[in-house]
């Protein structure tokens, strides 16, 4: 816990605010099975959590053993969005954490590896869009190099007008935590589903309930 309020709290989206990563992994596993690739779900989830679509596509090609069938990966992406439109659950405690940061008057933003198109579906369908209001949303599409490079977090900090050292980031993957740490930011690692050893190696401070976020960032007890 810190005694000084951060200038901004930056939330990752998938796995921190919205419960999409398990669903996406199941959809991908099903699509891979259709082209003859059987992969254990949990291993697949660990591989793709926090990665870009380009990285996921390259991983699928490796599993397939060569170039993927024409249009296959684009079909997976489209189908995944259709599944998300049917409804996405917020991560337990996410709404409370966002509201606490807002109530304390601390700036916040969402900093996602995922596309703006995906956030435009998952945040409304989970109820988070209404809670976030006009909070800025940043995507890996906004920079040349996404996570694990620091560029996206540095871009977000500059856009909201704060020093990176005055930001606290909430991440759930080693990829995202690596990016935030490389940007010089304090990282809270939401580690319910993460590889604890890999998360600790990034320098993230591990925690297991998003309702702890207000206390961890030093917000007053009444915030929220």
Question: What is the topological layout?
Answer:
Elements: E1 8-11, H1 21-34, H2 41-48, H3 53-64, H4 72-85, H5 94-103, E2 107-112, H6 116-126, H7 128-132, E3 137-139, H8 151-160, E4 167-171, H9 174-182, E5 186-190, H10 196-201, E6 205-207, H11 213-216
Parallel strand pairs: 1-2, 1-4, 2-3, 4-5, 5-6
Structural class: alpha/beta
The 3D shape can be described as globular
Largest β-sheet summary: 6 strands, parallel
What is the share of helical residues?
A: 40-55%
Q: What CATH first level of the largest domain would be assigned?
A: Alpha Beta
Radius of gyration from the alpha-carbon trace, in angstroms: 17 Å
CATH topology grouping of the largest domain = Rossmann fold
Count of DSSP strands: 6
CATH superfamily caption of the largest domain:
HAD superfamily/HAD-like
Low-confidence stretches: none
Written overview of the protein:
The protein is an alpha/beta fold. The protein folds into two domains: 8-19 and 88-216, Rossmann fold (3-Layer(aba) Sandwich), CATH 3.40.50; 21-85, DNA polymerase, domain 1, CATH 1.10.150. The chain contains eleven helices and six strands. The chain has helices at residues 21-34, 41-48, 53-64, 72-85, 94-103, 116-126, 128-132, 151-160, 174-182, 196-201, 213-216; strands at residues 8-11, 107-112, 137-139, 167-171, 186-190, 205-207. The protein has a six-stranded parallel sheet with strand order 3-2-1-4-5-6, sandwiched between helices. Helix 1 (21-34) packs across helix 2. The model has no long low-confidence stretch (mean pLDDT 93).
